[in-house]
Amino acid sequence: MNSGQTYNLLNSINYPEDLRKLTVEQLPEVCGELRQDIIKELCCNPGHFAASLGTVELTVALHYVYNTPYDRIVWDVGHQAYGHKILTGRREAFSTNRKLGGIRPFPSPEESEYDTFTCGHASNSISAALGMAVAAARKGDTQRHVVAIIGDGSMSGGLAFEGLNNASATSNNLLIILNDNDMAIDRSVGGMKQYLFNLTTSNRYNQLRFKLSRMLFKLGILNEERRKALIRFGNSLKSIAAQQQNIFEGMNIRYFGPIDGHDVKNLARVLHDIKDLQGPKILHLHTVKGKGFAPAEKHATEWHAPGKFDPVTGERFIANTEGMPPLFQDVFGNTLVELAEANPKIVGVTPAMPSGCSMNILMEKMPKRAFDVGIAEGHAVTFSGGMAKDGLQPFCNIYSSFMQRAHDNIIHDVAIQNLPVVLCLDRAGLVGEDGPTHHGAFDMACLRPIPNLTISSPMDEHELRRLMYTAQLPDKGPFVIRYPRGRGVLVDWKCPLEEIPVGKGRKLKEGSDLAVITIGPIGNVAARAITRAEAALGLSIAHYDLRFLKPLDEELLHEAGRKFQRILTIEDGIIKGGMGSAVLEFMADNEYKPTVKRIGIPNIFVEHGAVAELYQLCGMDEEGILTKIKEFIN
């Protein structure tokens, strides 16, 4: 941490109560120092960069105006909350951010009372904050303010609209801040537009408005329906003045903005003026992702999580990957293009992660056959189902953890109709520093009970390519392919595209003392542990790559059940209900009685840290598997 850096104001701020001792005139200096602190920390301790730079002024203004942690600030996703962490007692510990045992990558109530709600998946802030606002009112806590911050990207998620709909119909005083960084900040606007904005956010205006509405209620001239109509009318007038339409004007939610989200003094004034207004409110800000660091402003996507970089020149330190195996995601992206060139029915779908899953390769080569649907995982699946129903072959790529949000859509909109949608679950298994909100732990256990699904996991890049080829062949139905974050094991990753018989595993190695059954790339780790165990213990160990969780290779499992008294299953997924559980069920159903031991992600939410560290923590690394084999034999 750069805590030794000399800052005129930031060094004296340990908590928001220290910030609130300053004058409004000092806030721009605080913002400048906070921004520099983030830059100097993240250049050597990588994390989510551009988003946090874009919310510096908003963070300072919120903690300056609101009495946190008594007042509730609910962040959406949490990529933008580093400034919030630094101002709320975690500046000295910030060097441990995203490291094993260090502070968490996203806000978490387990870490700080200033973190009001767990976030990591987008679009939940409005619903959670509305719940808090209603709880405060229910308890008679009339002094508590609740603020939800949501980005324009997160607004595409269905949950955000569900929250908005409920907020418009429920008695509450929630403030929703829409952080819109998808466009340049307008120049300071003058004339009637600025006049109307200043008028509608001033204390005098709103006091007069409240007194007038109360009087009209008493006289019987105004009722609740008429009040809502007036709010809609007022929002319409403001939309005309701003020469912009907004989706809130018909929802009985008062709308303010848009304003410059980097003018911290004006932002503090506006927040102060509207914070005690009754009813739900939207404050629309325009911000710039990466604000204050020119390379990040120009290329926000590349600077979302840029790794290490030079804080002066902006040069990113990219590791030399020459001669290394490719990322699984890049094998997916390139293979998808290869398949699409041969099969005109193939289209690609991703919910806002084109570069993260390498769908951008298809987007660049065949832009009309690739769709980024925004942060909307459920829609991505149902949209894919609709295309499949009318003859296309969608490859829908969703991170494993985010797939959980589309579970219902997979069942109702794909599996019931047996539609040929290929669900490619990137980031399956332990993902590393992003922690429990992002680990792809649950997909096998969640999807295994669903009829009509084929569920597979390739052990290496060749297997991934062949499974992708197999999945797009006729009459394969809904087909799941799960694979991890990071690199594979084959430098020479290209291979002929050949069909793999659905439901057929592989016997990788004969043995007589113990059978090891794996699924997916963790089989490579197991293979190394098996070699060491045989050398150290004089054992003969068979190794099976199950390859398909559903349908199971019953011939392979019958062989293992008949031949072995000891079976060890290994998977990079939650141990409850996953592949090991499927093997146990098969053995019981067929009255085989081997002793079965399972290795997998334990039934806990695994913390953040490097993938290798987390594998070791869960006993899933080479040493952990070797130890388990020794214990099993003894």
From TrEMBL:
NCBIfam families referenced in this protein's UniProt entry, alphabetically: dxs (TIGR00204), PRK05444.2-2 (NF003933)
Gene: dxs
Originating organism: Bacteroides caecimuris
Protein name: 1-deoxy-D-xylulose-5-phosphate synthase
Organism lineage string: Bacteria, Pseudomonadati, Bacteroidota, Bacteroidia, Bacteroidales
Binding sites annotated in the UniProt record for Mg(2+): 152, 181
PANTHER family registered for this protein in UniProt: 1-D-DEOXYXYLULOSE 5-PHOSPHATE SYNTHASE-RELATED (PTHR43322), 1-DEOXY-D-XYLULOSE-5-PHOSPHATE SYNTHASE, CHLOROPLASTIC (PTHR43322:SF5)
Binding site for thiamine diphosphate: 79, 120-122, 153-154, 181, 293, 377
Cofactor field: Mg(2+); thiamine diphosphate
Record key words, sorted: Isoprene biosynthesis, Magnesium, Metal-binding, Thiamine biosynthesis, Thiamine pyrophosphate, Transferase
